[in-house]
Amino acid sequence: MYSYNEFDEAFVRTRVAQFRGQVERRIDGSLTEDEFKPLRLMNGLYLQLHAYMLRVAIPYGTLNSGQMRQLAMIAQKFDQGYGHFTTRQNIQYNWPKLPDVPDILEALADVEMHAIQTSGNTIRNVTADHFAGAAADEVADPRPYAELLRQWSTDHPEFQFLPRKFKIAVTGAEQDRAVIAAHDIGLQLVEKEGEIGFRVLVGGGLGRTPMIGKEISAFVSQADILPYCEAIVSVWNLLGRRDNKYKARIKITVHEHGIDDIRARVEDRFARIKPTFSGVDQVLLADIKAAFAPPALPARGTDGFDAVKAANPAFRSWCDTNLTAHKNADYTIVSVSLKKHGATPGDASAEQMRVLADLAERFGHNELRISHEQNVILPHIAKADLVEVYAALRAVELATANIGLISDIIACPGMDYCALATARSIPIAQQIATRFDELKLEHDVGPLKIKISGCINACGHHHVGHIGILGLDRAGVENYQVTLGGDGTQDAAIGERAGPGFSAEEIIPAIERLVLGYMDLRDAPEETFLQAYRRLGAEPFKAVLYPDKEGKRDAA
């Protein structure tokens, strides 16, 4: 993985020292909160319902063991003993004290981490496929390109005061595990006539106006991807709606102008700025690629693994759900669920983080990943070591066998923490997971993605959930709308609102009816919820969700 050079080190340390002075002036009253707010947001510090929240960048979701241990130390020393991994491959600390934040940032700098551009109207943390560099199906590792984009975008003088925040995601495979179609720019590595390049999407995003990104180019060479992305952002920087923050995102700009007009403007801008890129970016990219050379993976065999899997049902169940094919047949990608039934999705204790760091160091070639689905990935584990890995995970309640199943729920912090939220998300996710664990139906239901947001900003990605849940305030009462048929993969789709919302007391029984109804509607156990929905359409699912309420549903 990439290591800081002298410039990176000096840049981050300078920012820490600068913010330390700003915090001191806020504490002594020299800065008002209004004056301090833009300064703290530049360093990832939010003020939420009950306390400050610090959002730390994990670029393209990649960590080493030392970094994970440092995150654990920060959670234990400066917070309440845990961290929350997010859908943007970041980690959030929900309870830091303001005087401690500079020391936290200093501790992050000690392990080449920071919180820069995790907030504000700028280019945010560049995200990537959490199986990058290990997946059997990828064209190329997307992380070197994500790192190039990170370096280009960090403190870019033209893009520090954009119309709104801007998000870029990169995937290296046809199977989209980075939700690129729901990003301002989505990049997919493709191969054309032996050359590696990028299919480029633009104008995706969720929130109050969800949209799927549109293809602006079928192929941009890797040599041109940086000036092409700069052309896109600079065109939007000029066109974007600064008069209305709800219409400021690039998705609205693309919608209002049309993709053909935006493409013409980008191509014109690209032609003008491409000559100013002297090729130094490609020299830098070559150095970055060298830093991401795959680890040496000696042959290990799988005999011991196969025997235990055949004999141990619990281990077999975990293997069936939490393992993904690796490029090397002797190895596997392990997805560690942070979704124990009844737990807060995405939370990990300091102890759990240390165990994950130890496992990565001992068995995983010192690599960990954070997924946008709020889980942790060990990307290079020999199958021969899986029994030991599983035992260590089980000892700290990290061996839940539910990746991709109904309890593997994405949920934002909701009204338990967030000042923007209009309803709770965490308790709903916990109750759904607990209920289906009680019913012992989770594995019979099969692949099913539930995503929950506590407000219209859609941080829980509910629009692209097979079942999406949006919590709203209705006259002071929490109300939960259900959407159906969303998809965050290469077949991306925005879910359709099913009908009237449900109260907090009604939503769990409603989801239970919906899932049990799907099991009756499907052709065979192999037909997933999304496949059945696409085959049958919405009406059979609405009928199950709203029994004896067709008139009310139609009126809505």
- Count helical runs: 19
**What portion of the residues fall into strands of 2 or more residues?**
15-25%
Helix- and strand-based class? alpha+beta
Helix content: 25-40%
Low-confidence stretches: 551-556
- Shape descriptor: globular
Q: Biggest sheet: strands, sense, closure?
A: 6 strands, mixed
Distance between the termini: 52 Å
Instruction: Average the pLDDT over all residues and give the rounded result.
Output: 96
Task: Please tell me how large the radius of gyration is.
Answer: 23 Å
Number of beta-strand segments: 21
Summarize this entry quickly.
The chain has helices spanning 6-27, 33-41, 65-78, 101-110, 143-153, 225-239, 250-257, 259-273, 280-291, 303-311, 313-322, 350-363, 386-395, 426-439, 442-445, 504-521, 529-536, 539-545, 550-555; strands spanning 45-47, 52-57, 62-63, 82-85, 90-93, 127-128, 168-171, 185-192, 195-202, 214-221, 323-325, 331-336, 347-349, 368-370, 376-382, 410-411, 450-453, 467-474, 477-484, 496-497, 502-503.
